[in-house]
Structure formats: structure tokens, C-alpha cells
Amino acid sequence: MDRADIGLIGLGVMGANLSLNIAEKGYRVAVHNRTASKIDEFVAGAGDLRDRIVPNADLRAFVQSIRAPRSIIIMVKAGAPVDMTIESLLPFLEQGDSVIDAGNANYQDTIRRFGELTPKGIGFLGIGVSGGEEGARHGPSIMVGGSKAQWHNAEGVLTAIAAKFKGESCCAYLGEGGAGHFVKTIHNGIEYADMQMIAEVYGVMRDGMGMSPKACAEVFKSWNGGPLNSYLIEITGHVLEAIDDETGKPLVDLIVDRAGQKGTGRWSAIAAEELGVAATAIEGAVAARSLSSIKAERQAAEKVYGSLTRTAKSGTGVSLEDLEQALLAGKIVSYAQGFAVLSKASEENSWNLPLGTIAKIWRAGCIIRSRFLDQMAAAYDKGEAINLLMAPDFVEIMKKGQAALRRVVAEGALGGVPMTCLSASLSYFDTYRQGRGTANLIQGQRDFFGAHGFEIDGRGGDLHHHWPATIHES
Ligand code: 6PG
Asked: What pLDDT score does 315 carry?
């Protein structure tokens, strides 16, 4: 039987769908899974793609069924399972073969694996695959990092299976080592912020305006026809109009308000802090998920403090148009923060990340795909963006939308509707555009208690003042 063009280990939801996508694009794909029965199930469900699938329960046979130099995709749970899978593969691999980790790995693990495998003559690619089950099957966004030589081995298949935007593949090689997984991590940080801001706007609609899930759904659907057009806005309409089969009630009203998080959003916040880049909306979104998880405490606190949100009777000082503009402004700030983290990480790791290309491959297939990513890509390609907030297109949107963002954040504050991310975005914006901030006072305080020094224009840095001794209470 002809050898396979590529191999894939891990026939979970993502792995199985990726394999079908590969086969559908005309490639022969060898498949393997630790639990052999999963291979049989997968093959049985492959339909007319069956003849392009080369199943093997035996790992050696699986590797030998792939044409050299081999590219083998690993789609298993991030962490130790990836290392275990690599370990089990090594005895059967030959020089020039490469392993492709397509899971949500921590980029530092990817850098480590890249360093461990390269001396063995085995290539390693860490690729971020975004788009969930639907994306894996019909076209994800693929963010590739690792050795460029190995990338060329897998380039044909990966670009073929990726989503297309106006005919352009949403797959690109982004840089050495952990670059691909890092970009995916920041994608997820932006995803968290995007989802949190949508939830905060939903909070104003539900708790401030007293709107039903159906009414909220209609608004999000209408917004999806405008500048907010994006995958997350689109699915929000669907989630809000879904009806629970068992009770006939709006499903969203029955779902427990505790958000899960597998970790990628948290990693993006940690990376931002380690890089010294403010990513307050992303950090706020992670914190909001953590706060959502302590539901019992929140219920107890509500008994003590009472619920501050206004009822529909009192109405609110904001319009639906305000909410739309506020959400657009908040989203732009969160993308600006994400790209600022990417830019700093690119410098620190000498990745030379192509920010315009990253915006381009996010235009389709991935969870944060949005209409304005086309403008972001253009801004980077034209060299307009130190920070996206300085790109002319976004300057215009922010100048127009900031008043609405202020009204919505103020309304949330007055009504007790949580605004973790939208308020963080507004404060980031106000701090970013303030030429004279208040850190001068902080420098004075630091010199007072720690003699850390301060700078005065025209007199240089590391200056000190003769502060009065503080009276220590005996
Ligand atoms: C994607 C998603 C996906 C994400 C899971 C769970 O790009 O397809 O970001 O990779 O990891 O949907 O994410 P959380 O549990 O962190 O929300």
C-alpha cells in the first residue's frame, strides 16, 4: 500500500477531525491512537475518506507506513502526554523526520522539546491550531513555530488543511522554537478578553436593562452585521437563543455561571507580566474566570451586601448603541494589548514575529476571527502600528467609541454590574494616552522608603531627596 504523506497520533475530537481534513484534501494520512479501539471507531466513521487513511495500532508499523522524511502530528493532552508520546516514537524515527505538536502546549515546553530533539536530528514544530472541532475538520488557523527546514516538509499539508481568507491560507510559519505556541497562547488571552467583554455587555442587558435571553440574542445577531462582526459575536447569538430540551427554558439561564479554563489564558497573562507588558484586559478576563469559580463565596457575599444591579424599571443611562460601541472599543484595546505582548516577546526571543501575518492568519478559522483583523493586518503591513491604538483606523474608532465606553463602564459601576475587562480596557486607554501620569508620586514614595532614586528632566536620574525621618510608633 502507498505510504502515507503524514502521520497523526491522538484520535480525540481534534485529532480525528484534523485527520479527516487532511484526507479530504487528498493526502494519505497514517493514524495511530494509544487506545486501539479508537482507531477502529475512527476508521468506521471515515466514510468515503477511508481509502486515504492508513490505520495502525502498532506504533512501529504506524511510523513505517509514513514516507520519509516523516512529519508526525501529535494531538494529545498538553504536558507529560506529549513527552511520553515523543519518547515512544523516538526508537522508530530516522534522521530528518519531524514531530509536530498541535496541542495547546506551553511555549516553554515547546522550546525545551525543540532543544531536546534537534541534537538527535529530529525536527520539532509546535503549532497552534485554533478553531475548535469545526475548525479542525474544515479549516483551522495554524500558527507554526520550530525549525524552518522541518516546516517545509509539512508546509503543503498544513497550508492545505488551514482555513482560507479570500483564498489565502490561514497558516504561516512564525518563527523558531516556541513561536507558534506562544502566538496561540496570546490568541487565547485575547479570546478570554473578548469573551469576558461580551459577557459584561450581556450583564448590562440582563441585569441592568432586564432583557430576556431572546432579546439579547437578537441584539448580538444584529451587531454581527456591523463592525463587531466576528465568530464570538455570532456564536453568542446562538448561545443566547438556545432552548433547553428538558425544560423548554432558555439554556443560558440554566447554565451554572462558573467558567472553566484549561490554562492558556492564564499563561498569556503570566507571559505579559514576565515581559513587563500591560495586558490588563487579558489579565482581567483570567481573574474574572477565577472569580466565577468561587460561586459559593459569591452567593454568601450577595447575602451580606445585597445585589446592587438596577432593575429594568429604573432603566439605565446607556443605549444598545452605546453597548455596541463600547464593546468595539474594548475589543480593540484587548487586541492592541495582545499584539503588544507579541511584539515584546518577539524582541526578547529574537523570533521576528510577523505581526501583520499573524493578524492575517487570524482572519478565518480561529476563535477570535473578526472583521477588523483585516484592518489590523493592513496597519502592521503599512508600518502604522507601534501599538494598534496608534494606527489611524483604530484612532478613529477609539475617538468615536471612547465616550460610549465611559458611559457603559460608569453605568456598570453605578449599577453594580461587573466591568472587569471593559473598565480595564478604558483605564489602559486613558493611561496609554496620558502624556503626564502619576508615577512621579510613586517614584517619590519609593525614594522616601527605599532610597530607590528618581529622575528630574534636565538633571538626570538616580537623584535623591533628604526626606524627614518617619516617627516609628514605639
Ligand atoms: C481555540 C480555542 C481552544 C481552547 C479551548 C479551551 O483556539 O480553538 O482557544 O484551543 O483551548 O476551547 O480553552 P479554555 O478552557 O482555556 O477556555
From this structure: 55
Q: Is the CB of 191 under 6 A from ligand 1?
A: yes
Q: Is 47 in the pocket of ligand 1 (CB under 6 A)?
A: no
Residue-wise pLDDT tens digits, 249-299 = 999 999 999 999 999 999 999 999 999 999 999 999 999 999 999 999 999
Active site residues: 184, 191
Domains of the chain: 6-177 (3.40.50.720), 185-432 (1.10.1040.10), 447-474 (no CATH)
Picking from 185, 149, 156, the residue whose alpha carbon sits closest to that of residue 349 is 185
Q: Is 367 in the pocket of ligand 1 (CB under 6 A)?
A: yes
- Phi and psi dihedrals of 55, rounded to 5? -80, 145
Cα–Cα dist 140/332, whole Å: 23
pLDDT of residue 312: 44
pLDDT digits (tens, 9 = 90+) for 83-104: 999 999 999 999 999 999 999 9
CB of 197 within 8 A of CB of 334? yes
Q: Please check whether residue 126 is in contact with residue 146, taking contact to mean a CB–CB distance below 8 angstroms.
A: yes
What is the spatial distance between Cα 152 and Cα 184, in angstroms, rounded to a whole number?
20
For a substitution probing ligand 1, which of 106, 107, 171, 188 has the most ligand atoms within 8 Å of its CB? 188
Sheet-wide strand order for 123-130: 53-55, 29-32, 6-9, 71-74, 98-101, 123-130, 141-146, 171-175
Q: Report whether 365 contacts 140 (CB < 8 A).
A: yes
> Over the stretch 222-254, which tens digit does the pLDDT of each residue have?
999 999 999 999 999 999 999 999 999 999 999
Q: Which residue has the cell 521576528?
A: 352
- What is the C-alpha separation between 74 and 91, in angstroms, rounded? 16
Closest CA to 290 of 337, 321, 258, 333: 258
Residue 430: strand, helix, or coil: helix
Q: How far is the CA of 249 from the centre of ligand 1 (A)?
A: 27
pLDDT in tens, 305-329: 988 766 544 556 899 999 999 999 9
Q: Which atom of ligand 1 is nearest to the CA of 367?
A: 7
Q: Which residues, 6+ apart, have CB-to-CB distance to 155 below 8 Å?
A: 173
